[in-house]
TrEMBL record:
SMART domains: AAA, REC. Gene3D superfamilies: 1.10.8.60, 3.40.50.2300, Homeodomain-like (1.10.10.60), P-loop containing nucleotide triphosphate hydrolases (3.40.50.300). One of its GO terms (molecular function) is sequence-specific DNA binding. InterPro entries: AAA+_ATPase, AAA_lid_NorR, CheY-like_superfamily, Homeodomain-like_sf, HTH_Fis, P-loop_NTPase, Sig_transdc_resp-reg_receiver, Sigma_54_int. This is Sigma-54-dependent Fis family transcriptional regulator. Residues 10-124 form the Response regulatory domain. The keyword Disulfide bond does not apply. Residues 149-379 form the Sigma-54 factor interaction domain. Keywords: ATP-binding, DNA-binding, Nucleotide-binding, Phosphoprotein, Transcription, Transcription regulation.
């Protein structure tokens, strides 16, 4: 089959005027397009059964059926074909009706070739945009990894059941669980199973929002609301309108923002900073936190009324050490992700003793730590069978706490192997990261407390941790 040049369209032309048919047979190839000419609607519908077209130019008045009839049928069998209706001046209203039915545009007779050419250029542009969008979606999916929620241990079965119940409703959901236990995956699964799956999913890492801008980021602002607000700005609630807003690390929101979130949940309205009017937003909110909100309430850091408003449906994700039966399947899934293969293709790479060794470990970093361990082992084993010796040192030696305090003592520690330039030449940056990680551990991974002890902003801490994570990935 001949390949279609990227600037060429396959066009279906339907008109009973033979002079116009001849004109199109000559002119379309001259413009680089392929054309199939039909003299009436019936022949056109026949042609649609055997070929695919990028565009269809349809005469409004034909002997057997109208262009509108053909348009309706065309949109049923080939919704991606862009239709253009040709009409005389007298029937402009019908042309407007055609637009309502999904036509791309209409042209009035007598047709001028420049006009047709202009419309075809716009169709080509729209096709390019659609393809670009598709390519971007595929890349986003590849970057985010498969969103399948793996695990059928009794506790995970409960999680699956709650997801099935709550996903189709518009109810707010609170997902709790230790870091790396899969809260983000659960939020995306709820979204994908919801009625809003075709609308935006807007994830927000509340901890990474700068404290001075958090309100404007979430709720928007009017021009002049504060110094530097030189234009109106849409908040993320408005961006997510019709869809789902995922507030990750909810526990990091300050109390002022907590009040505003509560107000939104109760009224469905947000008010931009500096505005006097509220805006109605149809947004479903899903929240996640690894912090103990009850303890935060006792410490007067979290509003009790907000927690009760949020936890109508609470999904508690168990830590990996409490659902060890999920580990073999998860390990295969995550190994397949690193190897860019299917779980079946990598199943034989994991020796039974390697799985046993992993079952003996506590996994304080939960599934994320398992994902990193699988990536590490895959690289160290050179894509071959993975033995116990290929696992990161802390997994092999069953040391749950990552040995930040003696980073150079064990050259096989994943922390060192993954730290760029770690061998004998530690850079100032390496030393800084070791210190940050040590303080993070000391504070039980509580990021605000860590940032406070280090004397840096929470945002800076997140930036440093993200950069470090990227460097570890690049260093393999
Ligand atoms: N049940 C699961 N099935 C498949 N992959 C999972 C599962 N749980 C977690 N993962 C993977 O583990 C990693 C960490 O998961 P995720 O980001 O959802 O954790 P989290 O609880 O949101 O962490 P944090 O509290 O640090 O934000 C991701 O790569 C995710 O794809």
């Amino acid at each position: 089959m001949a390949t279609q040049p990227h600037n060429s369209l396959r066009i279906l032309f339907v008109d009973d005027e033979s002079s116009l048919q001849e004109f199109m047979r000559l002119e379309m190839p001259r413009l680089g397009h392929q054309v199939t000419v039909c003299q009436d609607g019936t022949t056109a519908l026949q042609a649609l059964k055997t070929a695919t077209f990028d565009a269809a130019i349809l005469d409004l008045r034909m002997p057997d059926m109208t262009g509108i009839d053909v348009l309706e049928k065309l949109k049923q069998v080939s919704p991606d074909t862009e239709a253009v209706i040709m009409t005389g001046y007298a029937s402009k209203e019908t042309a407007v009706e055609a637009l309502r039915l999904g036509a791309f545009d209409y042209i009035t007779k007598p047709c001028r070739i420049v006009e047709i050419e202009g419309i075809l250029i716009r169709i080509l542009e729209r096709r390019k945009l659609k393809n670009k969008n598709l390519a971007l979606q595929t890349r986003v999916q590849a970057a985010e990894g498969s969103t399948g929620l793996i695990g059928h241990s009794p506790t995970m079965d409960v999680v699956h059941r709650v997801i099935e119940t709550v996903a189709p409703t518009d109810s707010t959901v609170l997902i709790t669980g230790e870091t790396g236990s899969g809260k983000d995956v659960v939020a995306r699964t709820i979204y994908q199973k919801s009625r809003r799956a075709d609308m935006p999913f807007v994830p927000v890492n509340c901890g990474a929002l700068s404290p001075t801008l958090v309100e404007s980021e979430l709720f928007g602002h009017r021009k002049g609301a504060f110094t530097g607000a030189d234009r109106d700005h849409k908040g993320l609630f408005e961006v997510a309108n019709g869809g789902t807003l995922f507030l990750d690390e909810l526990g990091e929101l300050n109390k002022n923002i907590q009040v505003k979130l509560l107000r939104f949940l109760e009224s469905g309205e947000v008010r931009r900073l500096g505005d006097t009017e509220s805006i109605r937003c149809n947004v479903r909110v899903i929240c996640a936190t690894n912090r103990d909100l009850h303890k935060m309430i006792q410490a007067d850091e979290f509003r009790e009324d907000l927690m009760y408003r949020l936890n109508t449906f609470e999904i508690q994700l168990p830590p990996l050490r409490e659902r060890r039966e999920d580990l073999p399947q998860l390990a295969k899934h995550l190994l397949a992700r690193s190897a860019k293969r299917t779980p079946e293709q990598v199943a034989n790479l994991l020796k039974p003793e390697t799985i046993d060794a992993m079952l003996d470990y506590e996994w304080p970093g939960n599934v994320r730590e398992l994902a990193n361990a699988m990536e590490y082992a895959y690289i160290v084993a050179g894509g071959q069978e993975i033995g116990v010796g290929h696992l990161p040192a802390n997994v092999r030696l069953k040391r749950s706490k990552i040995p930040f305090a003696q980073p150079l003592a064990d050259q096989n520690s994943p922390m060192i192997l993954q730290m760029p330039g770690a061998a004998n030449t530690r850079t100032l940056h390496d030393i800084e990261m070791e210190h940050i990680l040590r303080v993070l551990e000391k504070n039980n991974r509580n990021k605000p407390a860590t940032a406070a002890e280090l004397g840096i902003s929470l945002k800076t801490l997140y930036n440093k941790l993200n950069r470090w994570e990227e460097q570890r990935k690049t260093a393999g």
